[in-house]
Amino acid sequence: xxxxxxxxxxxxxxxxxxxxxxxxxxxxxxxxxxxxxxxxxxxxxxxxxxxxxxxxxxxxxxxxxxxxxxxxxxxxxxxxxxxxxxxxxxxxxxxxxxxxxxxxxxxxxxxxxxxxxxxxxxxxxxxxxxxxxxxxxxxxxxxxxxxxxxxxxxxxxxxxxxxxxxxxxxxxxxxxxxxxxxxxxxxxxxxxxxxxxxxxxxxxxxxxxxxxx
Length: 213
Fold this sequence. Notes:
With 213 residues, this protein is α+β, with helices and mostly antiparallel strands. Helix content is 21%, strand content 34%.
């Protein structure tokens, strides 16, 4: 069990490794094409701004991360594991969008979220430029998933997600016959893969200074 003093120091350490909210955007992005750069688009596309919340909850055994399983009724990424989030509204900051989307998707009250900073931007193959927003979630959080968007809300230990041994590289063939590799991590009976795994792996690299493997 982590003592209150060491827990607070760990929170501060995480915050120091993130980009401040008002800092210029990072010049280095991660993307769905990190493991297959030969298939990255030749020309820069116009991407839709989006944000996700990496919500860190203090539990007796340490921090955990809030994740969701997307509703089977959604048109895109049906049933996949995801961080709460979505596209930014015009003029909306990434941190405001992440907190708003978390409230809409899982009932997380904005007052319970203390935003710590921003992780590495991530470009998806579906045309989104996603800013992962890291925030600490206070006691009192009770998930209330929106059934139109979320089938399930669960937590995964932060230590598991920050362990490079948790990730493996998998390969799939797209509809147009292109083979793509991606990160995947399996916690209990749930597989975290694709952009979500890529963003969490990028957070590990940012915090612990590991090179992309």
